[in-house]
Specification:
The structure holds two protein chains of two kinds.
Chain A: H1 2-6, H2 24-38, E1 45-49, E2 65-68, H3 74-84, E3 89-95, H4 96-102, H5 104-113, E4 117-123, H6 158-164, E5 169-172, H7 178-190, E6 194-200, H8 216-226, E7 227-229, H9 230-233, H10 238-241, E8 245-252
Parallel strand pairs in A: 1-2, 1-3, 3-4, 4-6, 5-6, 7-8
Antiparallel strand pairs in A: 5-8
Chain B: H1 3-14, E1 18-21, H2 28-41, E2 44-47, H3 51-63, E3 68-72, H4 74-90, E4 94-102, E5 108-112, H5 117-122, E6 131-133, H6 138-155, E7 158-164, H7 165-168, E8 215-217, H8 232-247, E9 256-259, E10 266-271, H9 274-287, E11 292-297, E12 299-301, H10 305-314, E13 317-322, H11 327-332, E14 340-344, H12 353-361
Parallel strand pairs in B: 1-2, 1-3, 3-4, 4-7, 6-7, 10-11, 10-13, 13-14
Antiparallel strand pairs in B: 4-5, 6-12, 9-11
Classes of the chains: A alpha/beta, B alpha/beta.
């Protein structure tokens, strides 16, 4: 398996640009493992991404066609490519700011259209590359470079958003549990229609250090410990779910 | 046939098989006709969520192998501008039709203007070399759309059809040739898709799914597409080639038409719908014995600099009627010291021949 995965990457693209402790490397590995286990041909796949740390996951690391687009536009670019060549297996891998803030319009409309593509949101709840600014996914009260006294705005629940817009597969798994994440990615990839996977991924450099996480390990462990499976969460009231990350499969409609 | 519809016909004849658009007056007729025509020829149509989505999906489709087009008007061009810059640096062939309306901003949606000439050239940040044509008739809405596709594919650039509301909504007879000359993009799997040995070359362009492991990025990149955002030599070589691949071969794009210029002392330079009025004005002044002629700009970008240098040498004054505050009049001043007199009109109405006649007769202070 490792041999197969090493053939799916551009050796000259390494080392990755990710900071120590960044979750995006785990996500990169999970995506490649999912594709390898599915035995998909990388030559028939297109990986589109926008701008930001997460957009570097496929480009330039993946040995496949990659389309590194403008900030926020990956889904719209991918829509054009997929419609013209339906034989392409299209994956969009990008960040939360890219997909849900500047690119939010394309996300909701691609979900509504049920375009056959997989969108993976590497969600670190902050703008990492540009210096740790608040995002549309930053939790209430969290400190960022533009909310030094704590975030006053409510964050998006991207899975609820994708579901409301008509996505036919919606799931969330964090990088803290890579095996369920890989399993979820495989289901999203083989799904016919618009699939969306929200992947919480810690950013110790920009988020952690401003929010009293003393180490990358502590941040990853906190993420893991705060996750609660959807089935378990169903019986709990909102107060008990405070600060929890609900993980699992929210929508799975097969055509 | 209507000008906008003729544009759609030209696109299909040129091999366009992907159209993405968003409703906007006065360009919507192009999109509506493309729905039906692409269904007939097995192409793909999508109405996107906004103009940013339109240009984005056009670029995506182009890399998937399509000859692709979108059509809009000023406000839509404003939204597409970042995507146009992306198409320039990634060398993505695409055709963008701008049926110009009176601005700024929402302006007069149903009224003609020629105010976007500088926007399509200089809108995106950085240096951009693009191709643009200005049709003056329904026939040219067809012919120049085909040319725009051919140059877009040949030079791997965004190519514009700078129409205006008046020519877009004009109805005239269209003559369709049985066979049109069509340029198809050049492919060479073993050559780099983003660089050439020559400093002014156009690299081959594989499509997604062909096994080329394409690395398409809007960041500064080497000939294989690897980001080199801190390498000044790569940046210099890339930006120079993006400009020179068009500028060094501009004589192949530049197209002008001369009317009664052989013995002219006074010249009129005009383009698009306004050139029709300019030609009428020139003819009526000739009847009075005024030695005046017309140079019509069929292409706008790259600019017809040599024709202007030559005109400036031969004439004592040049008048430039246009439906803006003097965008092309200002451009002319780069290439000649002959007095340039702008005849602008920006009230949302077309320029009448009599207004050009009066402008030329008016005593110069």
């Amino acid at each position: 398996m490792n041999e197969r995965i090493s053939q799916m990457i551009n050796p000259q693209a390494f080392p990755t640009p990710f900071c120590p402790g960044c979750g995006h490397g785990i996500l990169m590995g999970a995506v490649l493992r999912a594709i390898a286990e599915l035995e998909y041909d990388m030559k028939k796949m297109l990986f589109a991404s926008g701008i930001g740390c997460a957009a570097w996951i496929p480009s330039p690391h993946f040995k496949a066609d990659t389309l590194h687009t403008l900030h926020g536009r990956a889904i719209a670019y991918a829509t054009g490519a997929k419609l013209f060549n339906p034989n392409l297996k299209v994956m969009v891998i990008s960040g939360d700011g890219d997909l849900s803030s500047i690119g939010g319009n394309h996300l909701i409309h691609a979900a509504r259209r049920n375009i056959d593509m997989t969108v993976v949101c590497a969600n670190n709840a902050i703008y990492g590359m540009t210096g740790g600014q608040v995002a549309s996914t930053t939790p209430l009260g969290s400190r960022t470079s533009t909310t030094p006294e704590g975030n006053l705005e409510r964050p998006f629940d991207l899975c609820k958003l994708a579901e409301a817009c008509g996505a036919t597969y919606v799931a969330r798994q964090p990088v803290a549990t890579p095996i369920p994440l890989t399993r979820t990615l495989k289901k999203a990839i083989v799904h016919r229609g618009f699939s969306f996977v929200d992947v919480p991924s810690p950013c110790p450099t920009q988020f952690g250090r401003r929010n009293a996480f003393r180490s990358a390990y502590e941040m990853l462990k906190t993420l893991k410990d705060s996750c609660i499976p959807l089935e378990k969460a169903k019986g709990l009231d909102p107060a008990e779910l405070e600060g929890k990350v609900i993980v699992g499969e929210f929508v799975n409609l097969t055509a | 046939m209507q000008g906008d519809e003729a544009c759609a016909e030209g696109a299909v004849a040129a091999g366009c098989r992907f159209f993405a658009g968003y409703p906007i007056t006065p360009a919507s007729e192009i999109m509506i006709r493309m729905v039906h025509r692409l269904a007939q020829v097995g192409g793909v149509f999508i109405q996107m969520e906004d103009e940013i989505g339109s240009i984005s999906s056009v670029i995506g489709a182009s890399w998937a192998g399509a000859k692709a087009m979108t059509a809009t008007s000023g406000p839509g061009i404003s939204l597409m501008t970042e995507g146009i810059g992306y198409a320039v640096i990634t060398e993505t062939p695409c055709v963008i039709v701008d049926v110009q309306r009176a601005g700024p901003s929402t302006g007069q949606a149903t009224r003609p203007a020629q105010g976007d000439l500088m926007q399509v050239k200089w809108g995106p940040h950085g240096d951009n070399e693009i191709v643009a044509f200005a049709p003056w008739s329904v026939q040219e809405m067809y012919d120049l759309t085909i040319k725009a596709f051919n140059f877009a594919e040949r030079y791997r650039v965004p190519a514009f059809l700078l129409a205006d509301e008046a020519v877009g909504h004009l109805r005239e007879t269209l003559v369709v040739k049985e066979e049109v000359e069509v340029f198809d993009r050049f492919k060479a799997p073993n050559l780099p898709p983003f660089g050439t040995e020559a400093p002014n070359g156009v690299p081959p362009m594989p499509a997604f799914g062909e096994g080329a492991n394409l690395l398409v990025t809007g960041s500064t990149h080497d000939p294989w597409g690897f980001r080199k955002t801190a390498d000044s030599a790569v940046q210099a070589r890339l930006t120079e080639r993006l400009v020179r691949k068009v500028q060094d071969f501009k004589s192949e794009v530049i197209e002008t038409e001369s009317y009664l210029l052989e013995d002219a002392e006074i010249a009129v330079v005009s383009y698009g719908f306004t050139a029709r009025a300019a030609l009428q004005a020139v003819k009526s002044l000739r009847k009075e014995g005024v030695k005046v002629g017309l140079l019509r700009l069929v292409s706008i970008w790259p600019f017809a600099d040599e024709a202007i240098v030559d005109l400036g040498r031969r004439c004592r004054v040049i008048f430039v009627p246009e439906m803006n505050r003097g965008q092309i009049a200002g451009e002319l001043k780069k290439y000649t010291t002959t007095p340039i007199i702008s005849l602008p009109k920006t009230n949302g109405e077309v320029i009448e021949p009599v207004e050009i006649v009066e402008g030329i007769r008016r005593p110069k202070t």
